[in-house]
Model the fold of this input.
Amino acid sequence: MFKVLVADKMAEEGLKVLRDHALFEVDVKLKLSPEELVACIADYDVLLVRSDTKATAAVIEAGKKLKVIGRAGVGLDNVDLDAATRRGIIVMNTPGGNTIATAEQTMTLILGLSRCLVPAASSLAEGKWDRSSFKGTELYGKTIGIIGLGRIGTEVAKRCASFGMTVIGNDPYIDEERAKRIGVTPATLEAIYQTADYITVHTPKTAETLNLIGEKELAMMKKSVRLINCARGGIINEEALAKALQEGKVAGAAVDVYTKEPPEPTNPLLKAPNCLCAPHLGASTTEAQVNVAIEVCEQVVDALTGKGVRNAANIPYVDPDLLETMTPYLRLAEKMGLLASQIKRGAPQKITATFSGPVADLEVKSLTSAIMVGIFQPHLEYSINMVNAPVIAKERGVQITEQKSTDTRDYADLIQLTLCTSDGDVSLDGTVFAKNDARIVRIDGYHVDARPYGQMVLLRNKDLPGVIGSVGAILGKHNINISDMTLGRIDRGGEAVTVLNVDEVVPEEALKDIGKIPSVLKVQQLRLS
Ligand code: NAD
Ligand code: MLT
Done:
């Protein structure tokens, strides 16, 4: 049973997805103070939020059972992503569900601003009939500069084009051809600042976009320009924008989002002339709220019932259609990591993962993460998964090399792992037979055919007669049954590797006795799940 805490108001249609599922139990607790949230989060596996609740490092630290933080919406600036990632918590959002609502809100703001809608309505409500003070401007024939041509920027571009506007835009991370396909003429930021009549920002808030438009940029703009921020507070610097409005250096602005929400009453934009301020209503439509609530709840169910993780901000995306094919390889990769780190128990220093054959066409980043999970598991007290494994590797200075090769060494496909540790190196080759049968096919170059499961014993021995008999006798004396065995040598009479699967944990005493057999060079007990 997974316990879900819904901390912000969410559409019932979405919560029903969880309530109807036998494995989920839902508690709705709205408007918790940060202290109250920290105090109760330990009971929950899932935290669902919109933008009001802050999933801070303290909340994440207290959420010992947390597995998923789901954001019904796009922006993740209320979730401490680094803290969640370090703890192995999946953070997911619902990127598409409120795109149309926010694009329409942007158009509402552009039109409302252009036609002085709010002051005109207020004036009428005050009993005036003033038809001369609220002369607007048309969108037709004007130029709009769109900064950020992702989901919302694209929808805004389409709508502006239908108003007969010239649409120019800037997004260094999308292909110029794509910009052209959506009807946007690519332009530099400088060109947008100098020529646009409207400028609207639709980027995420990042180190690069914070204060993207400040005093210097505002000074480059036409006096008639109108600016819109329906993305995140601070992308257009609030003080600089308020000052430019006060000084008549820009004609107007419309703002849906603020650096601090709710904004302090002293926020200069709230009283600035020709500034239309909305209380973060971009996604506030019935349709969008139903969309994001259903999406986030379905994603949570899928993630926790093994049907795949979608829209996670801290885990590589695996196409759900690919997941079925990937699963045996993910298991093999984790087991290879676990085996390698038990064969060489020193501190991991370098991990090289090579993928050949059809497995190389899968999502290899996830497979490398699964290898890391296996490698770090025996070293750490806290839980490790594919979310935090790459972070832990980075924090510990472990060098990761991921490569693809065409050399499958006679297997249909192959995962090769070399682990370098402070205690020496080990290399393993693994493959999957018949879609689901994971095998280790080489250990340090010795050809074997080992099934990586349960309790195992690894021997380095001289290739001489009688070794296996002696080992079997010792295990028999301790009532340990051998369920599988494989051995590999390179030269007759030289060194060999023997791998046994056994039904029980082998007692220390038995391992010592095996170690005393003259032709046994080394014996190790290995445990796989
Ligand atoms: P998206 O990820 O689809 O698009 C963002 C685009 O910005 C991407 O194409 C990216 O390449 C581009 N970008 C990133 N850095 C850039 C830079 N320095 N210069 C130019 N372009 C840059 O996101 P989206 O769903 O379109 O959301 C856009 C913004 O709207 C986000 O900030 C999101 O949080 C916000 N949002 C606000 C509301 C609201 O209620 N007001 C609702 C939903 C989303
Ligand atoms: C978002 O990021 O999705 C929007 O800002 C809307 C919201 O806060 O829910």
